[in-house]
Amino acid sequence: MLKIQQIPLAQSGEQILADRILLVEDHEVNRRLLSDYLCYLGYQVLCLAEGSTFFQAMSKFRPQLVLLDLKLPGVDGYTILQEIREIPDWHQVPVIVVSAYAFKADQQRALSLGATRYFVKPVNLSHLRQAIQEELRDRPI
User: Where is the Response regulatory domain (predicted)?
Assistant: First the structure.
């Protein structure tokens, strides 16, 4: 099931147009913590607990950035990285990997498949926030 968390309304009562982040994380606690943190920062977040609905979510939600775990039920993060880079409309969407895989080989594989950054869990939230801001600021329009 797709769950989009909305950011709060502006004082004028109008919805703020926020950058959209697709968060793909199978661990419920990690997903909730990251989602709450991103919403607190003002992003609109769509959370997925597995990779099988990723492409449907990309089409409907049209995120400006993806936070992706690699170990997922259904379709793993490596497969998602490989396939996302083959779709022209999604090729420019930055993908930041947030994974428990700490080996250099895992990081190199993810980056070679198109990830723009790689963080090992537990992630430093201020470093993640900075990376997200840089990726969104530097993306092509």
Answer: 20-136
